[in-house]
Specification:
The structure holds two protein chains of two kinds.
Chain A lengths: L4 H14 L3 H17 L7 E3 L2 E3 L1 H24 L7 H18 L6 H28 L4 H20 L3 E3 L3 H8 L1 E2 L2 E2 H18 L3 H10 L1 H6 L4 H27 L1 E3 L7 H11 L11 H21 L6 H16 L1 H19 L7 H6 L1
Antiparallel strand pairs in A: 1-2, 3-6, 4-5
Helix pairs in contact in A: 2-13, 3-8, 3-11, 3-12, 3-13, 4-5, 4-6, 4-11, 5-6, 5-11, 7-11, 12-13
Chain B lengths: L1 H34 L2 E6 L5 H17 L2 E6 L4 H13 L4 E4 L8 H9 L4 E4 L13 E4 L2 H15 L7 E7 L5 H14 L5 E8 L4 H14 L5 E4 L2 H13 L9 E6 L2 H8 L5 E4 L5 H12 L7 E3 L4 E2 L1 H7 L6
Classes of the chains: A mainly alpha, B alpha/beta.
Chain lengths: 364, 326
């Protein structure tokens, strides 16, 4: 091969930028570095009271529930569906667990907490199964099927909490979302374990391929003999389970269940995380790693808003601009257009006798 | 023959009984409207513990005052409230009271009530109608005053301190009346002295989870925080956890002043974690029933009535804790 070192390097750069995780990772890095400009010790992590303490830890810690919800959402979206009910599931899971603990005679007991977890996760399986059956068996469009639970579920959560905020004092329960294990927030470890399990399950077995195939072309999948019905029902159950775990984390972190506000609009953040991570909403190919990066981008953005002091009235505009920029940067079509324009400008500067069109200069 | 007569007799007796019943019925109903006041109340919903306490207070006060209460829950939708008010008008209640879900869009239905000569009382939240004759009175908290009370305490607490006093603020839901007013009331008081500096202010959406999240970021981005001012207790409770995780002592390392006065906050105060709490009282049932009776009797009532609200120091909170209902 007679390639020059320069061409080699260009090839390597291309290989890196072509990686689907490159752009989300680059955006996350830019956001983090931007924070450094405002908060010099943004990257500083120290031990405080026997656990790690720092902004990066906060991002991971508060991002953990979103990572879990987005993970479930990724698999649902891979099958060409969508799950709007995750926010309500978050609220219901937290409410059920806290209600059980607050009513028990031994709120600090391990048995009580395990039962509470069992109730919450059990309810999630039920809710997920309802979604799954509606979509896979009854053939209801996913957005409608899960919209039912999104609207009704919030009411169910309020019914469970009786409109009140249930406060619990239970050390074992506190561990899930607010505790630390080996100096690391337990929620981060839990989320990492679930993500790892999902990656192994989808990538080391044929499961991931089957999901992509069902999402990419349902008819062809059925013709080659994939049992799509069961598979689709399963991803909704998985999504609900992830949401319930997130709900346990959220309520455990503040030791209280808030039926009105827990997980409010998290479904939209989760969908955004999936999209930022490079998974198409049309179904088919999915990227769990991308989703994790997407969720971290969203959480970093939230932390950025707090640390650099964006006024609350303009927070949403600020976030919107960042998200638009991120989506544009990730769009291959947009990048191609930008590159074409850039090379055209370069060509015109190579030939100084051709006056560059002024409007183009302004545009670039 | 005798059979027929007996049948006629029975029929006649029945008619007599029926008319007696009828007249008895109208008689007692007439008496009822004369003595028993009928109030139609349309509540926002059951979105928070504060609101639930508000509902309970109104229902219990009505029972205590011998008022017949027609209660309707709007589930946070304006159209439900408008429907409820129209049904109150049809039922010819004596007084209509409601907590408007939103501020605008009430003119038509309130005009209908006015045409039916039914006085309207607003509770807790106001409407922004140009026609002031559409309601007789507005009974509720003064959020600006609450912010001022929080500021007053701070000025007194740091009267002898040299400063600067760095304050972080957890705001309520952006754009909501309590968030706007509590912010401006507080700012009005503390701006008089340049040593008070609000170094960071962010919305915590009135929730614990957000309050904690925002406070954690504040603790890392602000080198020195002396005071936390939270627009409600839930955010303060979340922030307390963040402060503790940062290895600081809420109440002494960082002083905390908050608004609402819910039970969980009183518990925190009894542990010395909140320094001052301004009450926002949901228990306006008694005042509402008094007001309704006065309005019905044709008495002149003030257009703006503030709910009776206090402030709490940790000692007062500890004392009040066992009797706190919400």
């Amino acid at each position: 091969m007679s390639t020059t070192p320069a061409a080699d390097r260009a090839g390597a750069v291309k290989a890196v930028t072509r990686n689907r995780l490159f752009w989300p990772a680059a955006v996350l890095a830019v956001l983090l570095v931007a924070n450094l400009a405002f908060t010099p010790d943004f990257f500083a992590v120290r031990l405080q009271g026997g656990h790690l303490y720092g902004s990066l830890i906060d991002i991971l810690h508060f991002g953990a529930p979103l990572i879990l919800v987005s993970l479930g959402m990724t698999l649902v979206i891979a099958t060409g569906g969508i799950d709007l009910s995750v926010g309500s599931t978050v609220a219901i899971a937290g409410a059920l667990a806290c209600l059980h603990i607050s009513e028990s005679t031994d709120p600090g007991g391990l048995g009580t907490v395990l039962t509470a977890l069992g109730i919450a996760l059990g309810a999630a399986v039920l809710l997920g199964a309802v979604n799954g059956l509606l979509v896979a068996r009854a053939g209801v469009q996913p957005i409608i099927a899960t919209l039912i639970l999104m609207v009704a579920g919030r009411g169910v959560a309020q019914l469970i909490t009786d409109g009140q905020i249930i406060t619990v004092t239970s050390d074992p329960y506190k561990l899930i979302g607010g505790g630390y294990w080996l100096t690391v927030p337990f929620a981060v470890l839990l989320a990492a374990a679930v993500v790892l399990a999902a990656v192994l399950l989808t990538r080391s077995t044929a499961l991931g391929l089957l999901l992509e195939s069902v999402g990419g072309n349902p008819v062809a999948s059925r013709l080659v003999g994939i049992r799509a019905t069961r598979l689709i029902a399963l991803v909704y159950v998985f999504s609900a389970l992830c949401a319930a775990l997130a709900g346990l984390m959220v309520s455990s972190n503040v030791s209280a269940a808030d039926g009105n506000n827990a997980g409010l609009w998290i479904e939209l953040d989760a969908i955004l995380a999936v999209v930022l991570g490079g998974t198409s909403l049309n179904g088919g190919r999915f990227s769990i790693g991308g989703t994790v990066l997407g969720a971290l981008i969203i959480q970093t953005l939230a932390t950025t808003v707090y640390t650099i002091g964006v006024p609350p009235e303009t927070t949403l505009v600020f976030k919107a601009f960042v998200v638009i920029a991120v989506c544009l940067v990730q769009s291959p079509v947009f990048r191609a257009k930008l590159a074409a324009r850039g090379s055209r400008v370069r060509r015109t500067t190579d030939r100084p006798y051709v006056a560059a069109p002024t409007d183009r200069e302004v545009g670039a | 023959m005798s059979k027929r007569a007996a049948a006629a007799l029975v029929a006649g007796a029945m008619v007599a009984v029926l008319t007696a019943c009828g007249s008895g019925g109208t008689g007692s109903a007439g008496k009822g409207s004369g003595h028993k006041l009928v109030v139609g109340f349309s509540q926002v919903g059951a979105e928070s513990g504060w609101r639930t306490a508000n509902t309970k207070s109104i229902q219990e006060s009505a029972k205590k005052a011998g008022v017949e209460l027609k209660f309707s829950d709007a589930q946070q939708k304006q159209e439900n409230q408008i429907k409820a008010i129209r049904s109150f008008i049809q039922q010819k209640v004596d007084v209509i009271a409601f907590s408007p879900v939103v501020e605008s869009g009430w003119d038509t239905v309130l005009k209908e009530a006015k045409d039916a000569h039914i006085p309207v009382i607003l509770t807790d939240r106001s409407v922004d109608s140009k026609d002031e004759s559409l309601y007789v009175s507005f009974l509720g908290s003064d959020f600006v005053e609450e912010g001022k009370k929080a500021g007053d305490w701070l000025v007194k607490e740091y009267a002898s301190a040299a400063g600067p006093v760095n304050i972080v603020q957890l705001e309520g839901t952006t754009g909501s009346a309590p968030a706007n007013d509590r912010k401006s009331g507080f700012a009005d008081v503390v701006k008089a002295d340049p040593k008070f500096k609000v170094v960071a202010s962010q919305t915590g959406d009135f929730t614990r989870a957000k309050g904690k999240e925002v406070m954690q970021a504040f603790l890392k981005s602000q080198p020195k925080i002396d005071v936390l001012y939270a627009h409600n207790d839930d955010m303060a409770l979340g922030a307390i956890q963040a402060i503790e995780e940062a290895g600081k002592k809420p109440g002494s390392d960082i002083k905390i002043v908050s608004v609402d006065g819910v039970k969980d906050a009183f518990t925190a105060m009894s542990q010395g974690k909140i320094n001052y709490d301004v009450e926002c009282n949901p228990l306006l049932g008694d005042q509402l029933m008094d007001l309704a009776k006065k309005v019905k009797a044709g008495e002149q009532v003030p257009r703006r009535i503030k709910t009776e609200e206090g402030t709490f120091t940790p000692d007062q909170a500890t004392a009040a804790l066992p009797n706190r209902q919400y």
